[in-house]
Amino acid sequence: MPPVLAYAPAPEVDLLAAYGGHCDRLGLISVNLHSAARTFLRRWPDPQRWAQEPLEVRLTVSHPTRSFLMFLMLAGHLRPGYDYLIRRKLSVFWRHLPPGSLAEDLAGFLAAAAELGFTERTRSAAASQVIGRLLLQTGRRLDALTDNDFDDLLAASAARYGASKASRHYSSATHTARQVMFHLGVFTEQPVNATSLLRQSFAQRMRDATPALRDSFVAYLDRLTATHSRATVTGTATRLNHFAAHLAAVAPALSSLAGLDRRRHIETYLSATAVASSGLLT
Asked: Which of 8, 118, 202, 229 has the fewest Cβ atoms nearer than 10 Å?
């Protein structure tokens, strides 16, 4: 029986027209792009059928075809599989990202990551490497992602190298993404972030606090690791220890942070800090 050719079903015409508008928006003028798109749809008139092909087949598509695949993914017409997404850098992801719900979700994620003190490079990597791939594959909104989705991505990273755990880059980016999701209130449990990742434990960092207050400061820093970058947490720990040392000097009998008094404890610390800073400038 000769192969069945599906040359012009209605979905194909719509996808080609939409892709044409996508290329116009980006200023992509190569005739090979449209030819590659037509060839792809002749073989896979339903783009999702392509995702069922062996990984080796999916990885061998031409460069012009990959541009069409990116359009299909960003427009919600294709979920290519985590195995494919892990192996592709998606270098044009940000440039090709169209206006819409996907762009809105990523903008919200980036804004939240910035609030937590992550650098532009770190938050951009977490957004494209992790969140972007999760949104592309699941087809869901940011607030509908689950912890299992993150685990699936990490499993795909581990499978790529036949390892028992994901690569360092994916593990780091995923942890960052989970911190932001916790900050956004999407996740209700703070992500695990062992204090061994820091050069010193929080108890050691709070060495100048009185025994009565040390546990409270440590508990605060533990909470902070769920929503802030490592650099932000360590910087906060340094400043907090200075405040703890001040309290030990002016109120050694203070038994709880609930007993802090603005005039006696906080304003005196601010004054001492200002004096110390002035001394450094003279």
From this structure: 8
| Residue count (the chain) | 282
Which backbone phi and psi does 117 adopt, to 5 degrees?
95, 10
What is the spatial distance between Cα 40 and Cα 62, in angstroms, rounded to a whole number?
A: 10
* Domain that residue 145 falls in: 101-188
Structure pTM? 0.65
Distance of alpha carbon 178 from alpha carbon 138, whole angstroms: 17
Which residue has 């992790």 as its token pair? Answer: 130
Identity at 267, one-letter amino acid code = E
* 177 and 127 share one domain: yes
Residue 183, CA distances (Å) to 109, 148, 233 in order: 10, 18, 15
| pLDDT < 50 stretches in the chain | 1-13, 194-198, 277-282
The two three-digit tokens of residue 85, written as one number: 């997404």
Neighbours of 120 (CB within 10 A): 10
How many independent structural domains does the chain possess? 3
The string of pLDDT tens digits covering residues 186-215 is: 998 877 654 444 456 788 888 889 999 999
Residues 176 and 206 in one domain: no
